[in-house]
Every structure is written in C-alpha cells, then in structure tokens.
Write a structure and sequence with these properties.
Length: 325
C-alpha cells in the first residue's frame, strides 16, 4: 500500500479528505480506482477536479494507466487459488477459486450455493499447504442463511480429513457476518467491509474472501416492473464494481450467489438462466451453474471464464461439508 495519505494528494484539502473518508474512500488506492463522477458526487467537487485527484492517486498508488504484459503477469502471480475441497472442482477451476475476481454461483434453491459459500469460508482460513489463503472472511448475508453450526461441522470435517486439531471457535472468530436489510444497505456494507478489511489487515488477519449471499434477492424484491429496470441495473452496476474493487484492493476472492429464472423462449438447452442481466454477466469473472443430482450429489458447470475451458465437476454435499463424490 502507498505511504502517502489522502490529504497529501494535490487538490485534496482536509475538508475534502474528510468527505472522501465518510463516503468510504479511506485510502489513496480506493480513490485511484474510483470514477470521476462517483468522486465528484461524494466529495462535492467538480468532475475535472475529481479526475485530477484520481490521476494523482493513481500515480501515488502506482496503479492505472497502461501496463506492459510482464507487469500484468507479475500482478497475476499474486492471484491466490482457494481450494473448494473437491478434486474435480479444483481442477476445473485451474486450481481453485481465484482472488482478484468475482465468482458467481447460480442455481435453483437447494442446489448448494450457500453450502459452497460456507465451505469456502472455512477453507480460506487454512494455510496455503492445505489449499487455503491464510485469510479471514466477510459475509454479507441478505437471506439470513448463515449458520455457525454448519461452519463447526465443516471444520470438524477438515480436522478428520487432514488429521489436524482444528478449533471451530477460532474459525468462527475469523468470519465477520453482516445482515443486509435492503439493496441500499447491501451496497453500503461493501464500504463497511473495506473499513473492516483495512483494520484486519493491520491486525495481521487479511480478508481473503468476501461473500454476498444472495446478490440479487433484495434487488429483485425491490425493483418490480419494467419502469424500474434501468434504475436497478445502475445500482447493481455500482455494487458489482464496488465488489471488484474490494477484490483488487485486498487480493481477495469475491463470491456471490445468484438465483435463476425460467427462460420462456428457450427451445433448446437448459431453460434456466441467472438473474441480473448483462451487468452481473459482464462483471462476474467466473460463472458457475450448480445443479442438483442424485441424493447428495451436485453438478457444477463452469459456464464462463476468461482463461479456462467450459467443464463440469461432480461434488457431494455431506454433513462434513463438500467432498468428492
Ligand atoms: P437457495 O438459497 O434456496 O437458492 O438454495 P442454495 O443453493 O443456497 O441451497 P443450499 O446451499 O442451502 O443447499 C441446501 C441443501 O444442502 C439441502 O437441501 C441439503 O441437501 C444440503 N445440506 C445442507 N445442510 C446439510 C447438512 O448438514 N448435511 C447434509 N448432508 N446436507 C446438507
Ligand atoms: Mg442459499
């Protein structure tokens, strides 16, 4: 992280710095990846001033502008891969769930989205030797489906798998859960998550996983009818970019769950598709489609990825957590 403070950026006085911080732009890095209009509105400054501040922040934080391929490769080397705990699934993902990216889990009720999210919240706390990222977790829970008891079962499962003495209590202490009461609150919680992640990083407990379960439930419930769609998509776009920014800032995995709806015009192929339209489709880096199969088996299909072939993996949801089938 850069050493300089917001106040040291040209064009930022103490008053502006205060407004920026209130709006969640706590660091030079956060300003560097903001859009001019976003910054102009929150700090009540002109857009051209905002653009100048952003440019200065980019130089200070050493981000933005053009980069050569070798520099990009260098940053990609920082990308962590978080194990799913399932061999086939990890292989399909090229090693695991990537940091600095949004992974979307979609599928119908009971397909295992929330289960997978719980499992990742456990796995991410393991050391790298065991497929984890030595990290803590933030969960934005919109449907009140976080279950600490389930985390404890999964920790017990891992203890047995690796023959280690793992303490469920310790795992629970590293999972920070917030209920989101509506879509606006959900968007604001990403700012609070950023504050918390800054604190946790300073305490030596970096956040390596941010979960939003579920991404669309509030948006769908609140924006009903055709006339509201543009407004909804604009809000959603802001939210998705807030999540991407979080992943970049903290080198964290961002995992969101999503619902499906029937596609009435589908004569061929699968008649379900994720909700959220192009905004979600284009900002999610990896899209995974979860389907129920026989008994405790679930089929996971990698639908969209920038660098991996499409594929399917079969996993099992058991009391001990997600395992190979
Ligand atoms: P929605 O949020 O309703 O859209 O569904 P989801 O995709 O999040 O489903 P979820 O991950 O909650 O999956 C629920 C299913 O997981 C249940 O129907 C069970 O089959 C399975 N499951 C949940 N808890 C346990 C458990 O403790 N043991 C076992 N064996 N299976 C479990
Ligand atoms: Mg769920």
């Amino acid at each position: 992280m850069s050493e300089i403070t917001l106040e040291e950026l040209p064009g930022v006085g103490p008053a502006t710095a205060e407004k920026l911080k209130e709006a969640g732009f706590n660091t030079v890095e956060a300003v560097a990846v903001a859009s001019p209009s976003e910054l102009a509105t929150t700090a009540e400054i002109g857009e051209s001033t905002a653009a100048k501040i952003i440019n200065a922040a980019r130089q200070a934080a050493d981000i933005g502008g053009f980069e050569t391929g070798d520099v990009v490769l260098e940053r990609r080397k920082m990308v962590g891969k978080l194990t799913t705990g399932c061999t086939e699934f990890d292989e399909m993902m090229g090693g695991g769930i990537e940091s600095q990216a949004i992974t979307e889990l979609y599928g119908e009720f009971g397909s295992g989205k929330t289960q997978l999210a719980h499992q990742l919240a456990v796995n991410v706390q393991m050391d790298r030797e065991h497929g984890g990222l030595d990290g803590s977790v933030i969960i934005i829970d919109t449907e009140n489906t976080f279950r600490p008891e389930r985390i404890a079962q999964m920790v017990k499962g891992l203890s047995e798998k690796y023959g280690m003495e793992l303490d469920p209590e310790e795992f629970l202490q590293n999972i920070h859960v917030a209920r989101a009461y509506n879509s606006n609150h959900q968007i604001l919680l990403v700012d609070s998550a950023t504050d918390l992640a800054n604190e946790l990083r300073d305490m030596g407990k970096p956040v390596r996983l941010l979960i939003v379960d579920s991404l669309m439930a509030h948006f769908r419930a609140e924006y009903v009818g055709r006339g509201t769609l543009a407004d909804r998509q604009q809000k959603l776009n802001k939210h998705m970019h807030g999540l991407l920014r979080f992943g970049d800032l903290f080198n964290a995995c961002v995992v969101v769950t999503n619902q499906v709806m029937a596609k009435p015009d589908a004569f061929f192929g699968d008649p379900t598709r994720p909700v959220g339209g192009h905004v979600v489709g284009h900002t999610a880096t990896f899209r995974l489609y979860l389907r129920k199969s026989k008994g405790d088996k679930r089929i996971i299909r990698l639908v969209d990825s920038p660098n991996l072939p499409e594929g399917e993996a079969v996993i099992a949801v058991t009391t001990d957590g997600l395992t190979d089938q």
